[in-house]
């Protein structure tokens, strides 16, 4: 069978905001916060800052295509003066990958300035855009984030304050969102009512931060205070923190892929430590799909914690079978199919003494097209592995996600057109076991989860969404 190039499940976006009431510049802290969120988006990034002690409307921003350390140099950061700011790392889910769509979005309007960074995806984008177009709005991006910013600006004209404008806007938008917003004197965080997207609150000395993940707080030496509640609007000013929970509700649906794949290992989201969740995933795989083997190994880096969990639960030793080359750039040119396949061997190389003569259990968090897994199995067997049994710490992807997780179309999903046994044969494994749907909950205890991309049961009405990824 001819293999197509493997495509990955893409991360979402990462947001970070900070307010320093003492007046110190916050751009360096945003830089380090965004660097720790780089795994959530590598296409573009940006920082917007303002001085809350200066005149209103003094927002200063810099954005660019590429990684945080590529876009921001020391000179650039030194020119970003302000004690209030927000930052963003982006992977495009709505809107093309170009500089116009880079965030934060900065608006100048009748009430002043607004900088907004958004992680997530709306499901009523078409109707919101139509409403704005009918009132003469002119768009500079193709993102749903711009719609949120415009509605806040429009609502602010008649609202008593920006928090009221944000509340009115949040009542209009539907979907998944974690927002950090800087107005001239306030830092505001907003989380969607279902809690699909993560958002947390931190503190360092007198400064407060809002971030997508707790690892961003640790990166700047800040203390994790708590997760922002689903539906909560948190406002930080020189007078402290206020909270509005008018949109909070009992129903919740936290994205399971934060725990399977997206979040960094050292983060804790909604009370669940990511490393522990992935260890439990491996243990569930071991219980569901036991096999006689000599060694459990993980695909770096995403499959290693689940492999460790499988090893601990099964009693089969855990080992490192691959050396990962950290210096293969993300922009490595792969113009032909042959060169695309060779790129796997450039990134990962088998440690032959570890696998020679061994029956291997190979653990990863997903199989999308099957190409990468097939290549890895061939490499293991060429290095002397007697057999390779594949275990996957997520169920097969079968449905599109409308909330910001860029799962490829059905044409690219091997599980949408092949049975597990057919996939096993295609990738060349002796056996294959996917995480069972009923075992997913064991990763996160009683936390309510969204797993719509796995079972097709969406936590909200998505009939008005115009982007059908099945087509």
TrEMBL record:
Pathway: Purine metabolism; IMP biosynthesis via de novo pathway; N(1)-(5-phospho-D-ribosyl)glycinamide from 5-phospho-alpha-D-ribose 1-diphosphate: step 1/2. Binds 1 Mg(2+) ion per subunit. GO terms for molecular function: amidophosphoribosyltransferase activity. Its cofactor is Mg(2+); [4Fe-4S] cluster. SUPFAM superfamilies: N-terminal nucleophile aminohydrolases (Ntn hydrolases), PRTase-like. Transmembrane segments: none annotated. It is an enzyme of class 2 (transferase). [4Fe-4S] cluster binds at residues 255, 401, 450, 453. Its EC number is 2.4.2.14. It catalyses: 5-phospho-beta-D-ribosylamine + L-glutamate + diphosphate = 5-phospho-alpha-D-ribose 1-diphosphate + L-glutamine + H2O. Keywords: 4Fe-4S, Glutamine amidotransferase, Glycosyltransferase, Iron, Iron-sulfur, Magnesium, Metal-binding, Purine biosynthesis, Transferase. Pfam families: GATase_7, Pribosyltran. Signal peptide: none annotated. Mg(2+) binds at residues 302, 364-365. It comes from the Bacteria. The active site is at residue 13. Residues 13-239 form the Glutamine amidotransferase type-2 domain. In the C-terminal section; belongs to the purine/pyrimidine phosphoribosyltransferase family. Catalyzes the formation of phosphoribosylamine from phosphoribosylpyrophosphate (PRPP) and glutamine. This is Amidophosphoribosyltransferase. It comes from Blautia stercoris.
